Amino acid sequence: MTARPGQTNLRRRVTNADAHTTGECDRTLEFQDKPQTETADSLASSFTASYAGVVAFIAVAVEGSFARAADRLGVGRSAVSRSVQKLEAQLDARLFLRTTRSTSLTREGELFYQNCHPGVQRIVQALEDMRELRAGPPRGQLRISATMGFGRQVVAPLLAGFRARYPDIAIDLSLDDRLTDFTSDRIDIAFRDGRLEDSQIVAKRLVPMQLLVCASPTYARQRGLPRHIDELAAHTCINHRLASGRIAEWDFKVDGIRQKLVPTSSYTVNDGDLVLQSVLRGDGLAQLAGYQVAQHLREGNLVACLSPYAPDDRGHYLCYLSRRQMPARIRVFIDYMTDAIRALDLQYVTGLSPAPPAMPAPLRTGDIDAPRATP
Questions:
Q1: Beta-carbon neighbour count of residue 314 at 10 Å?
Q2: Which of 4-18, 269-283, 298-312, 361-375 has the lowest mean pLDDT?
Q3: In a domain, 359, yes or no
Q4: Comparing 142 with 328, which gets the higher pLDDT?
Q5: How many CB atoms lie within 10 A of CB 288?
Q6: Distance of CA 338 to CAs 143, 168, 317, 342, 368, Å?
Q7: 112: domain range?
Q8: Please, which pLDDT band fits residue 122 given cuts at 50, 70 and 90?
Q9: Which of 36, 86, 218, 258 has the fewest CB atoms within 10 Å, i.e. is most exposed?
């Protein structure tokens, strides 16, 4: 099985720098928290170890093959192989198990990777920061991930303005509802929705995320609208299947307590836009994100209900890895998108109807919440 540990942002310029580096930089990475005499011995023993060898080792470990590592570093496969062999000889340890079909790390290789990887990342980041500092305007490639709906409707339309302001930054946008792995997917910025629990990333809340149960005016006239979540069982509901394969739960807050349910449905799709189109046709009710339905509510194409039970602890977040020194291209993108998204009217619906009754009331045609814009 090919080993592909967490990715690191290796660039060809880092490898080429090895040819110009001073004696101080041409070393393997050393680690702290050791006695002073032991550290000195380690430094002495690693004096001849090549930084290019460490970078070649990291590239092979990340890419899972010598050929792909060579392509990524912009050098020949033989050069990568020689660098790794030299490093193995210096360490007196075998780092890879190589067959005609696969390349995987040995246990010694896994340990060496875990120790080296953070240090190489710091060196790469330092070199990149220094180059960007000298180069002037922000430049380079920016890899962005966003959920399908929010990315298509909110993020993508704003990129034209960003690219016009920063023409030297190349944008690589990926839309995917699966949870982003910053390291293995090599993502710089990710837009995430809902509630975040990953403490390993920096999550900047852009705006609250509203979830609204909506229907078409035609459906509301013919079937009425629920006034309590218990009445959803009497309605035709449309469900959304997530990228994970499970059905998205409908999220509510009743008497301050979070409640989730998956209503019975005869129609389930795995695309949020198809859910919206089905609701617009009058096929049934669905719980949708505020950014999806705000314009349709303004234009009268949709009506909302159950707003007193809408959750109030979700948000739209801009996420990135926690790094003390941030490349200029990431910093300007964060600033630009924060201002641009907060300027949009995504907070359209608030306080749509009076407080719900203590007990569920009978269904009545015309129980439609009147939308109003946020002041």
A1: 19
A2: 361-375
A3: no
A4: 142
A5: 24
A6: 17, 20, 10, 6, 34
A7: 12-135
A8: confident
A9: 36
Residue 291 belongs to a domain: yes
Give the CATH number, domain containing residue 151.
3.40.190.10
- E strands along the chain, which residues? 96-98, 103-105, 140-146, 169-175, 189-194, 201-208, 211-215, 237-240, 250-254, 257-261, 265-269, 286-289, 303-305, 315-321
Tens digits of per-residue pLDDT, 335-360? 999 999 998 877 655 543 333 333 33
Same domain, 200 and 324: yes
Q: Is 3 domain-assigned?
A: no
Cα separation, 63 vs 136, in Å, equals 32
pTM beyond 0.70: the answer is: no
8 Å CB contact between 342 and 334:
no
pLDDT band of residue 33 (cuts 50, 70, 90) is: very low
Final residue in a domain of this structure, among 285, 309, 333: 309
Backbone angles phi, psi at 240, to 5 degrees: -115, 125
Number of separate domains in the chain: 3
Amino acid type, 341: I
Domain membership of residue 366 (yes or no) is no
